[in-house]
Structures are given as structure tokens and as C-alpha cells.
Amino acid sequence: MMRKISFRTFGSRIFIIFLFSFIGISIILSFIYYQVTSKQLEDTISDAAMKNVKQASEHIDLLLQGYESLSKSIITNTDIQNLVGKHSNNSAVKAINDRTITNAIGAIYYAWEDVISIHVLSNDGAAYSYGALTQVVNPNYMTLDWYKQLQHSEGETVWFGMETDSLIDTSRKGEVFAFGRKLYNLTRTESVGVVIIEMRTNILQNILQNANITEYTETYLVEQGIIKGGRNSQLFQQVAVGLESATSVGKMKRVDDHFIVRYPQNINDWELVSLTESSIIKIEIVQFRQYFMIITLSLVILSMIFAILISVHVTSPFKKLRIYMRKVTLGNFEEIPIMNSYVELESLTGAYNQMVRKLDELFVQMREMTESERIAQIHALQSQINPHFLYNTLDMIYWTLDEGENEKLGEIVLALSSMFRYSSNWENHADVTLREELEQIKAYALITQMRFGEKLVFDWKIDPDVLDVCIPKMSLQPIVENAVIHGVGEGGGEIKIAAYLLDSVVHISITDHGKGMDQATLERLNALFTQAEVKIDSSENSLKVGIGLVNVHKRIVYRYGMKYGLSITSSGLNSGSIVIFTLPYQSTQHTMMRLE
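^ thats the sequence. predicted structure below, dont judge the formating
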């Protein structure tokens, strides 16, 4: 069964963050690369177009300079200058003059391979032509626009450009490149006619074709928006609208769906215009887009793999930490080995190990405290059913009966009953108020005083402010009993019990003026207390040190901390002893709330 994917896990979120980050970066970089590539492609086309157009323009200038030289060779020919427009009534002379003009034109014609025809037209209507064998000169040529342009010129070359058919020869069908000049008689300094020359267009077409940078490019010779050279004039007319204002000469600019380059011709007022369809960039971009999609898809796959690896690498230490944490819930307080991965995780692992150690210590302390409570109960019961204690108490009751002191007997029985009832009731908590504990001590003191009589004296100095302080049950009686038995002994003496508050710490002191103890014994007892803060051997016979003083100390330390507990002082043998019991100042209500 497939495991359900949770997007709330740390690993899933890292994976998603890295994945979307990588994809976002890839998209942004791809978009930037797309824009840069498009601009570079456009710049490349612009540079190529400008270079080709400039070279084509230079070649056309050279070609037109040659054509201009051709026209000059005609208008400067002496025979043509002198004989055209010269009238003679002698038919023979006239025939010789015509033949001379025709021969002069023929000589020039054969000197140029790409000349289709040369026509010299006099102002009086005479026409001298050389070219195809079947030429039919349009009789109405004087009414045509090209003729009028030549007549209005000042002797410079007039360029008509590429025409679909001959301007003057009605029998000539096909493209021609036409130009002409006005013819002068330099002797008479007057115009005698015009010269019209028609050339083949293959050379010019080749130049224009070579200017095309792609199959989607068309190049034209243009004069004021009118095509003078080039094909597909319909395309040019679609794009040429607003050509003058849309582009600058010598620069490429995009107009509608075409890139346009304009370059001026030096020999005349024409311009070389190159039109490149913008689809060429689209084609390149489509090819690039396919390549880009493959790269992007590869980057996405690599991003996913990389995100998975990062997610696994980052979350692996946390998974180990989670495994150890689950062990804690099962009671296995095993520390995590320090993982050399991340500073934060090492800090977290250290804190976790510290917590585990603390929990382990607390559990040990709880077990020991529970054991201490059990020992305290046993000792409390033992102290009440101790044969010696019972024998002395019963013996005292016997002598009291013998003396007829029934009132004192009742007090002894009530005190003994109170002690048994107090020491056997452990149902609610092991904590009582100091007031309740002192009532138990006073019952014990009453019984012991009845036994020892005036030899044993108890002195009570209790601050009323500390009577409601909560203390461990049966914690004072072992100390007082130890003072009676091992302190004053059978010889009797004074026992002072004081309770007071000092710096928010409750001090309870039990002082006896009995045997005291030497320095070695004092150090041994205090050493046992110090060891009890860490660990105490449960096999230690606490009766030897006064019915469980060490156990009392352990109970205080476990409940309130190492700042509190028991301490013993003595000035030496026969100087008495002082046992000081310290615990924090807490009211009964506050303590009970803490226990609950």
C-alpha cells in the first residue's frame, strides 16, 4: 500500500522550496537568455544586413559609374555631335551622315556586352538606333514622360531604372535598365537631341540578390518611394508606406513584420532598401525554443533530483533525532551520538542529551525518593513497635498505675495512640505542615519526659510564621529521637527545638547538650550527607546514625534541591550537637498545588 505523502513534513517542505526555487530561477534565467538571444539575433541580422547593403551599394555605384561613362562616350563623340541635327539637301550627303552616326553608335554598342540598345533622337525627329535587328521605334516617343525628362535636364545623366519593357522599342519585351542624357552640339552650343540607352538587368539583379541576407529578404533601388530596381514590387508597396518617417538612412529598424535597411547611393538620389521578414527571427526563435524546452526540462529534472538529495541530506539527522525521541517515550533514555552536520542541530542534540540525562537522573531520584519514603514509613513503624520503646512505655504505664496517677496515664495513652495513628497514615501525601509534625514530636516528648522525669527538658522556640510550612512527614522525629537516645542518653539533659525564617529559608534546629561527638564522627556524618546528594548505598545501617538521618537528608534533597537538607555541628565530646534542618519557605496551599 502506497504511503500517503504529507506536505507538512520538514523534508517535503524543503523539497518543495528547493524545487520551486530552482524552477523559478530556471524560468527567470531562461527568460533573460531568451531576451538576450533575441536581441543578439536581431543585432546579428542588422549587422549582416547593413554589411550586405553597404557592399551592394558600392557595387551599384561602380556599375552606374560605368553606365555614366558609356553615356559620356556617346555625347562626346565628334561625329555624333556634329552630324545629329545637321540638315543637308543633298540626299547622298544625308545618307553618308546617317551612316556615319550609325557606325559611331555601333562601335560603342559592341564595346559593351550588356547593352541592349542605344538610341540617338534628334530634335527634328530623326532617330538613330543600334541593337536588335527588329527594332520598332515608338513614333510618339516625344509625348512620353521619359523624353520630356531628358529635354528638361541640364546635360546630367537621367536614371530611369528598371523597366518591365523597352521605353522606345515597341517590339522589345522584357526587363531593361534605362538611362539617358541630353545631346549638345558643342560648336553651336545648343541641344540637338537626346540619347536613351537600355541595358540588360542581370548584373544589377545579381548585385541586389547578393545583398539579400536570407531567402526572406528582398532588396530594391528606390527613388522617393518609387522602385528603380528590384522585383516583387507589391511587397515593397505594402511595406513602403511611411518608409521615410519610419526608418533612418544607414540604420535598420523594424516596421510591421519586416526589418528595413536604407542606404544612400553616392552617384544619384537613389537609396538601396533591404526588406527582411521578421519571421526569420521567429524561425530561429522556434528552433531555439525547442532547444530551450529540452534544456529547461533537463534543468527541472536535475532540480527535482537535487532537491530530493538536499531534502534527504538535510532531514536525515532530524530523522535520527526523531527515532531517539521515540525511544524516550518507551522509557529508553539513550543519548544521541553527536552528529557532525549542522551547528544548530549539534546544539539541539546537545540540549536533547542534556534533557535525557536530566530525565534519567530525575527518574532515578524518583525511584530512590519512593524507596526513601518507604524506608521512612518502615522506620516510623519500627520506631513505634520497637520492643525497647514499647517496653519502656508499658513499664512507665505500669508504674503510673501503681502510683495512681490516672490523669498522666491518660495523657500517655493518648500520646501513644496519636503517634501510632500519625505514623501509620500515609494515604494522602508524604507531606505535612510543620504544625502537624510538631504535634507528633510533642507527643513523643511527652512520653519520653514521663519516662525520664525532670532529667529531660524540651525547650520550644517556634516562629508562628513557619507553622504552615510543608515538610516531609516523619522527618523531625528521627532527629529528635536521635538527640534523646544518642545525645542526652539515660543521664538526661536539655533538648532545644527552634524554627525560624531567614532569607526565605526555613531553619529548624534540634540542639542537645549531651555527649556530642568527636571531629572524625562529625566529618563521617556530614560526608554521608554529601554523598547522599549524588548516591547513597541503601545497605548503610541508618540506625547507627540516629534512625535514618541520611534518609531524611535524601528526602529533603530530592524534594527541594541540593541547597537544602541536614547539617550537623558539634564542638566536641560532651559539648552537645546541633542538627540544622533547612527547606524553602512555602505555604501548605502552594506546596499541595505543586504536588498535584
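The first strand starts at residue 115 and ends at 122.
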